[in-house]
Write a structure and sequence with these properties.
The structure is a homodimer of 503-residue chains. The first copy, chain A, is an alpha/beta fold and 503 residues long. Helix content of chain A is 38%, strand content 19%. Chain A contains 16 helices and 20 strands. In chain A, the strands form five sheets. Chain A has a seven-stranded mixed sheet, sandwiched between helices. Chains A and B meet through strand 3, strand 4, helix 8, helix 16 and strand 18 of A and strand 3, strand 4, helix 8, helix 16 and strand 18 of B. Strand 19 of chain A pairs parallel with strand 18 of chain B.
Chain lengths: 503, 503
């Protein structure tokens, strides 16, 4: 990883295993410093722009991405093999995210303005509080969304919206796509009046470490592996000035099928599970890694049939394929695991096959530390439980996940059990899904894409949805400040018409 | 500090230097574990209580503190020598904080409920997001507010309000007071229906380390020194499961006097500064450590006279007195510092005298690392600046502080300079004060008592005011969840009538 003779990063086709796309030079220490300093210089200008002007710049970036759709999809498909339909949708999701944050800025509620009037009877001064940009931000791209969680993805969009310039560490899985997106978005921002240096790109493993240790960087956003995330979290915490590290790491996403649902719609559930497990070759942080089903009944066999009928394609990189195969081999050695089904792999160079094991709840609970670890890819455990009481005890001990799902049939008497399961999952997951599958994360105001450790390093925050902007904001209070010197968000007349609390 | 032969902690009178109050046993490792486990058992019960019931319990605790006023003030005055008037006011502030958080709970806005309706046209599900309690919390008491930042202070009140049981590590400066407050508040909470274990107290240096490393503890609140805070922050970050550490450490609180104000009201400013610097023997985290005044004019000499006329009393502990004297000795060795004034010390055993030095802006800027460090106690630097342009460059380089203050006279032409100073301070301090002094922190909705590193370890949060509850909350989203199984905060009918965003 740190071979200093490698002077460039180049993509590899998951279909052929051959190099693809233009090579991208690895950033030198001087280039990382220059990028962080450029972001630092841009910060006072970008953060001081009226929110409405930042909103216009984000919309210009969104328009530029949409206009480059054909070029971008071709580049990304060569490097990721995710296919044109998926990548076309992902560009739209990415430009949509930029537009959502423009909406967040115009709404103005994101500053959480609070005005407490002076109270002469207690000598209390006039106090007005709002949130403002934190400083320059580093963003680590993810492999599995070359647009939506990459150079101009949710981390970048929310940080730019907050007023924070960004330095992106490109993912080595799609280097040419990253360069193209950076060029297009930085150009659009510049034309829309943003200062030079508001979006910067660096490449290479060592650039990442240098970036999080750079004194100009004030926060880090990350989506990736547990090992990589923990290492960067530790670097952030050990700095002379520690900075927040918002990392989304691994998640096993428990799914519970309650007895009534299992009895009423076993076939539909088996198909739904196999579809969610294998979607995108299982390369989603919300992949359903643990399926809890009642003992007995036809569901387990139906799951076996459904998964055996699935074929999955190439993983994004050879490293990820190797990681999947290694984890599958580890699980293959666990005596209590019985292979329930194996699907097929396409003939892509990095292809892997789906694999599902089954085991009883008791055996799972006894090996929670080993079996509760994420397997990134289309692999899952089907855990059979004897009764809901035993189940909820184990659910309450699960490692933190981004999501938890419950399949229930109220008419078949599942409601009390659903309530018990919800009480157990509520403190173990960030999003609770009823009669649905965890893959698919809607970009909207109420989304929460976060969860307890180890699914994220900061369970207070989300990386998807309008409140993702919270990560890049810090409060400031003005005491007895003259109205004409206050930011417009806090002036008496509320000239921006934003939601505020007074009291 | 870690002498294991010390089996108890006992207070010392700052007036006489003699032991005072009952000795309090140091907590054993088993006792720390039992306290954390008690909090863990209380968590599901306390966090699941309706917010209105938690509000009633907080009000019962407030009433119980007020009812014990005489006993509490006597205990605390013996251990801290802060005097009856100040301590009487502080008990009222403490019960007032508990009542403010009851108001926060009834208001309901603290859960930040957001409802995004389903959109069949894009297959978007129904999503509803709110915030809920994080888990059991450890609180480290401060020395300088034996009630308001101690066992039942702002950290504890906000955590309990959020639904988080608390284990307090008592401050060794007021052990008997801590035991009495814990007994009174825990008893009142229990009588009001709170589960056993919702408030627990541990004592001793080693208990603190064991507490932050305990797996049941999910977050830590701290007010204290830079060294202690950094050590505990590092422990929290190094845990197998890292947890947030909300530490308020040191702050130099720059105060700028602009030329017009200096010309128009020099005497008033000199008196105001001397009063703020020496209030409570300077033992406030908002103590004005740096005063920037224009070169020339009578203000510097008036400051010298005002400070020379002040006498200060005992510091809270012998360790704090020794720390003050050591820092004063270090500053005494700095060649560019000229002693401007020394005040008098009372004949209390732990008394210290106020001391102020002066130096030019250029010399200060050249030694920013040394001179920008907090001196806890009644000591300050008076820094003379040649012009506002030079001043703002240095202000932008200051270490992070809780507060920054500007004294301006708009009629005398200070407004443009005030705007420049505000722009420079805005990203270096958490609260900006106009024509006032930083000591005095109003407990209200709009207060922000936080700031950039090293004034706090988490600049996104405040430890005073209604939004202090934010530290103990994590979001959870419900997707397509049946209305009758949702928490009342998210149900269609909004039965609690709380503020929510829909869209």
């Amino acid at each position: 990883m740190t071979d200093t003779t490698i002077a460039s990063v180049r993509g590899t086709s998951p279909r052929t295993g051959e190099p693809v796309g233009d090579p991208v030079p690895v950033s030198t220490a001087e280039e990382v410093d220059a990028a962080a300093r450029a972001a630092e210089r841009a910060f006072p200008v970008w953060s001081a722009l009226p929110a409405a002007e930042r909103a216009q710049a984000l919309e210009a970036a969104a328009d530029a991405l949409d206009a480059a759709l054909t070029e971008l999809v071709a580049l990304a498909d060569a490097e990721t093999a995710l296919g044109e339909p998926r990548l076309t949708g992902e560009v739209a999701r990415t430009s949509g995210q930029l537009r959502l944050f423009a909406e967040v800025l115009r709404d103005g509620g994101y500053v959480q303005a609070v005005l407490t009037p002076a109270d002469p009877s207690t000598a209390r001064p006039d106090l007005r509080r709002m949130r403002q940009a934190m400083g320059p931000v580093a963003v680590f791209s993810a492999s599995n969304f070359p647009f939506a969680f990459s150079v101009a993805g949710g981390d970048t969009a929310s940080a730019l919206a907050a007023g924070c310039p960004v330095v992106v560490k490109a993912h080595e899985g799609h280097p040419a796509t990253s360069v193209a997106v950076a060029r297009i978005v930085a150009g659009a921002l510049r034309e829309a009046g943003a200062p030079e240096g508001v979006l910067n790109l660096v490449s290479g493993f060592e650039a990442g470490g240098a970036l999080v240790n750079h004194p100009a960087i004030k926060a880090v956003g990350f989506t990736g592996s547990y090992a990589g995330g923990r290492a960067l979290f530790d670097l952030c915490a050990a700095r002379p000035e520690p900075i927040p590290f918002y990392g989304e790491l691994g998640s096993v996403n428990p799914v519970v099928v309650l007895p009534g649902a299992a009895a009423e719609r076993a076939t539909e559930l088996a198909e739904g599970y196999a579809g969610s497990l294998t979607l995108g070759t299982g390369q989603f942080c919300t992949n359903p890694g643990l399926l809890f089903v009642p003992e007995g009944g036809p569901l387990v066999d139906l799951v076996a049939t459904a998964v055996a009928g699935k074929s999955t394609g190439g993983m994004l990189t050879s490293r990820m394929r190797d990681g999947y195969e290694a984890r599958v081999a580890v699980l293959g050695e666990v005596a209590t695991l019985e292979v329930l089904a194996s699907g097929a792999a396409s003939d892509d160079s990095f292809a892997v096959a789906p694999r599902v094991w089954k085991l009883p709840l008791k055996a799972f609970a006894d090996q929670l530390e080993t079996l509760g670890e994420e397997c990134f890819g289309p692999a899952g455990l089907v855990i059979t439980y004897p009764d809901v009481e035993s189940l909820v005890k184990v659910l309450a001990e699960l490692p933190g996940s981004l999501t938890g799902s419950v399949h229930a049939d109220a008419a078949a008497g599942d409601a009390p059990a659903a309530e018990q399961v919800a009480a157990a999952l509520r403190h173990r997951v960030g999003r609770m899904i009823y009669n649905g599958w965890p893959t698919g994360v809607a970009v909207c105001w109420a989304m929460h894409h976060g969860g307890p450790w180890p699914s994220t390093t900061s369970s207070q925050y989300t990386s998807v949805g309008a409140t993702a902007i919270d990560r890049w904001l810090v409060p400031v209070a003005y005491q007895d400040w003259p109205d004409e010197l206050l930011p417009p968000e806090l002036q008496d007349a509320n000239p921006l018409g934003i939601p505020r609390r007074v009291g």
